[in-house]
């Protein structure tokens, strides 16, 4: 085959592999470069999300949630399950099996759509040439009319707690523990820290989460965040806010952590320490100096609203560009770029990208928070409905949390949709669809929802925006 392509994608994560498939579906000759290698020296597709991120973490979250239910919630429902134990090796085997099945699925999709996989480390050279270095150090150069950079991100390592791969680990290492740590420390109360902390807390760890910021989940609507915080504390997560870590030292098979909070200098000892303070773009050795692509001081690639870089014919998507580091955001950008290369004019609606924290309860949102709207001086109405008043949630023994809808005071158009509670990750999609179509709160209020369902809480929250909820007492409007 010729080494010239219409499109070469560097990176086979959820942004890259989707872009390559869409490009091929649109009739373009497409290739995808990926360096990830399995133990038997074969190429592995799917990137961080599929291999050591979104998918394996959700597998462990699901398993640990079932274990938690069996140990603490079954008896009150009349199910007697004594001496329930967890087999960590079997759990990890299950997780790995799901990952292997899905990565193999992407390889099958590449074959079905005619995408050429190229195994090795991709580096963008000048004039849209891509140099690929294989595992043996041999290089080969390919040419393309268009190049899409989709190299993703990697965990941030902080000087006070360098990774050692055993006692002090990143999010990837936290998915590979061979036993339940008696005492587990987590640095960072963000999405990753809370999810991983939740997994091991359910399995029996004493978990302490240390967060430098004073506000819990500052980007989340604070009514939702405060509700989630209370529930996490009830579950046994010890979340220490306003605590700045100053050091970590391994002594006698324990991690001695020092930090400072409002009370002064503190110390804690852990069997394992997870550092989850965020991620940074993975652009290491990805761009030649004369590639024409510009980056900021943090390694993010500069792109316009349509993910085009300053170099002609070069695009960048996903975690290496501005915006939230979310797999589905990367996939949407991948589709948009492929379609633009093919001559279409799509755009990504960045106002309608959902966010999810897969704890229990789940936290999910789309659009603006009440705090943002207050800061912008916007007039708005709010409707909320608690799952405690939802029959299906009560029947499922998952009646904590609420749905919150924020609508423009004049037009009634939905501006924000926030959920903390059971299946929030699924329920938020209703808000995304509504906002994508420019729906008003009244549109949802006039929609018939099946009974009994969790989604009825969306209906009631929409009714509550105008003070017309049926199954809770409505707040009196100020005269």
Describe the structure.
By secondary structure, the chain is of the alpha/beta class. The chain is built from twelve helices and 22 strands. α1 (about 15-25) packs parallel to α4 and α3 (about 55-70) runs parallel beside α5. The protein is globular and about 70 Å long.
Could you provide a short overview of the structure?
This protein is of the alpha/beta class. The chain has helices at residues 16-25, 47-52, 54-72, 88-113, 191-202, 222-234, 327-341, 370-376, 391-395, 424-436, 441-445, 456-465, and strands spanning 4-10, 30-34, 116-119, 121-124, 129-133, 139-149, 153-155, 168-169, 183-187, 206-210, 238-240, 244-251, 254-261, 264-270, 272-275, 279-281, 314-316, 355-357, 362-367, 380-386, 402-408, 414-421.
Largest sheet: 7 strands, mixed
Strand content: 15-25%
| Chain-averaged pLDDT | 97
The general outline is globular
End-to-end distance: 75 Å
| Overall radius of gyration | 24 Å
**Uncertain stretches of 5 or more adjacent residues:** none
Structure summary, number of beta strands:
22
Helicity range = 25-40%
Structural class, judged by helices and strands? Answer: alpha/beta
Features:
single chain, about 475 residues, seven-stranded mixed beta sheet, five-stranded parallel beta sheet
């Amino acid at each position: 085959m010729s080494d010239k392509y219409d499109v070469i994608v560097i990176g086979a994560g959820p942004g890259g592999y989707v872009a390559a498939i869409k490009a091929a579906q649109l009739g373009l000759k497409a290739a995808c470069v990926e360096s990830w290698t399995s133990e038997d020296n074969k190429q592995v597709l799917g990137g961080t999300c599929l291999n050591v991120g979104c998918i394996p973490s959700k597998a462990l979250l699901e398993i640990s949630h079932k274990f938690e239910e069996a140990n603490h919630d079954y008896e009150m429902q009349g199910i007697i399950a004594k001496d329930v134990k967890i087999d960590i090796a079997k759990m990890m085997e299950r997780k790995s099996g799901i990952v292997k099945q899905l990565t193999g699925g992407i390889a099958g999709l590449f074959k079905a759509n005619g995408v050429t996989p190229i195994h090795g480390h991709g580096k963008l050279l000048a004039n849209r040439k891509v140099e690929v270095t294989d595992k043996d150090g041999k290089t080969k150069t390919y040419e393309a009319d268009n190049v899409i950079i989709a190299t993703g991100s990697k965990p941030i390592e902080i000087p006070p707690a360098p990774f050692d791969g055993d006692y002090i680990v990143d999010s990837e290492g936290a998915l590979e523990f061979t036993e339940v740590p008696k005492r587990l420390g987590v640095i960072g109360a963000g999405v990753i820290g809370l999810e991983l902390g939740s997994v091991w807390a359910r399995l029996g760890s004493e978990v302490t989460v240390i967060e430098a910021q004073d506000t819990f989940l500052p980007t989340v609507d604070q009514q939702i965040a405060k509700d989630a915080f209370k529930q996490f504390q009830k579950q046994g997560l010890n979340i220490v806010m306003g605590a700045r870590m100053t050091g970590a030292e391994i002594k006698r098979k324990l991690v001695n952590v020092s930090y400072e909070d409002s009370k002064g200098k503190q110390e804690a000892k852990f069997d394992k320490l997870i550092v989850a303070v965020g991620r940074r773009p993975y652009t290491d050795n990805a761009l030649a100096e004369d590639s024409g692509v510009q980056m900021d001081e943090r390694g993010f690639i500069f792109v316009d609203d349509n993910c085009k870089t300053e170099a002609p014919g070069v695009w960048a998507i996903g975690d290496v560009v501005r915006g939230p580091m979310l797999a589905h955001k990367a996939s949407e950008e991948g589709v948009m770029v492929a379609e633009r290369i093919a001559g279409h004019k799509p755009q990504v609606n960045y106002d309608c990208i959902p966010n999810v924290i897969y704890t229990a309860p789940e936290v999910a949102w789309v659009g603006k928070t009440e705090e943002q709207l207050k800061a912008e001086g916007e007039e708005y109405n709010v409707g909320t409905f608690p799952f405690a008043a939802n029959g299906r949630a009560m029947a499922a023994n998952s009646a904590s949390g609420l749905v919150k809808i924020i609508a423009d005071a004049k037009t009634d158009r939905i501006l924000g949709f926030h959920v903390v509670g059971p299946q929030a990750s699924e329920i938020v999609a209703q808000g995304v669809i509504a906002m994508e179509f420019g729906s008003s709160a009244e549109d949802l209020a006039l929609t018939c929802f099946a009974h009994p369902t969790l989604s009825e809480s969306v209906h009631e929250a929409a009714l509550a925006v105008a003070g017309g909820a049926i199954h809770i007492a409505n707040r009196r409007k100020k005269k």
